[in-house]
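retry 2 of 3: previous attempt timed out while embedding adenosine-5'-triphosphate. Reduced batch size to 1 and resubmitted. Inputs unchanged:
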Amino acid sequence: MLDSSEVTVTADGRRIGGVLMDIRNITLRFGGVVAIRDTSFDIREGEIRAIIGPNGAGKSSMLNVISGFYHPQEGEIWFRGEKRPPMKPYQVARQGIARTFQNIALFEGMSVLDNIMTGRLTHMKTGLAAQAIWWGRAEAEEVANREVVERVIDFLEIQHIRKTPVGRLPYGLKKRVELARALAAEPKLLLLDEPMAGMNVEEKEDMSRFILDVNDEFGTTIALIEHDMGVVMDLSDRVVVMDYGKKIGDGTPDEVRNNQDVIDAYLGVAHD
Ligand SMILES: Nc1ncnc2c1ncn2[C@@H]1O[C@H](COP(=O)(O)OP(=O)(O)OP(=O)(O)O)[C@@H](O)[C@H]1O
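retry 2 succeeded.
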């Protein structure tokens, strides 16, 4: 299990624990295309970990491997000290890993509240048959699920749109509802695929604040892909840099900013 001796405290007082997920030597191929090539890194408990890199670098593929949508040909994923067997996305979700998508994946015709309730599905134990014979248990479960959802709605400040169909919301709020649905699952590890994409400056500031607050208040470990370098460098404890499917850098924002391979491939600052 996690090694408590590895706990460190950040400058802003957050606790970063031992390794929560260890990604070892992952290779993922689509026919002749190598999307990820022998890539390893870890995610520590309580940290905000970013994955960055140019278009086509393999970032989304990596998130899809972690969340069970893609199955790598080589490599291992260790979660909470145990090697993970090949898993389907719903099994990964049940392990406490939730995600958002690059292109918002919500039910547009359903209300904000109902969309967020779908985030509780992995926690629902009472099936239809059991509900028919044991209504009390189903009711208690429904109340507990509601409580979690209400807490998330308060936390993300979306009470005023709870009954609004998602299709009628502006883009920035849809992104926030997607975050709410992922949070409703009470994940141990939250994966965010380009949480700021397409947002204006104000929406980005709001989203950054929510990401930091989620991490701080719930202690949720967060791994995110993001192209906005200002946001990445501000939010992240550590950054993995990918290029052409390979890891080319890994470290604190300052270490990555000063890594010449990263500068050459991605950040585009001239040599001295
Ligand atoms: N389902 C797929 N089938 C075939 N090739 C794929 C598939 N998914 C990704 N790829 C290929 O794998 C490589 C890595 O793509 P990926 O989407 O992971 O990159 P990315 O870093 O997330 O890029 P972006 O920043 O543009 O989202 C690309 O060459 C891409 O075309």
